[in-house]
Amino acid sequence: MATGTRILRVRLTGSPEQVRLFLSEHPMEAERVVRAGGLVTIDGFVDEPVVTHLNQRGVRVEVLYEADERARARQKEVGTGNRFLDGRVPTALGLRRYGG
For the segment 40-53, what is each residue's pLDDT rounded down to a tens digit? Predict the structure, then answer.
């Protein structure tokens, strides 16, 4: 993917042949694959210029979100500092199971 371009999370829908052709030209890890009604739908990440290319190929593209924007929003959810500095350490973080 080119630097300086926006990375988009997209849902692509098209005939198996159209989707296969896309994947041969733009290899990516498809994170979700659904086959229904003679169409294939996949979710994955592409750089923004590819979206225009896909629309011209007859593959329907739904942009789910912009990856960097989502990442920046998620980073704001992460706390700062040492939350264990005052000596409070969490206990019982999970279930302890004994035996088989």
Answer: 999 999 888 888 77
**Residue 78: φ, ψ to 5°:** -80, 130
Give the integer Cα–Cα distance in Å for 43 and 33: 7
Token readout for 9 is 């999370």
**44 to each of 9, 10, 75, how far by Cα in Å?**
6, 6, 21
Assigned token pair, 44: 């994955």
Residue 25's domain comprises 7-75
Angle between the N-to-C axes of helices 48-57 and 16-25, in degrees from 0 to 180, rounded to the nearest 10: 140
Number of domains in the chain: 1
CATH number of the domain bearing residue 56: 3.30.70.240
Rounded CA separation 34/85 (Å) = 48
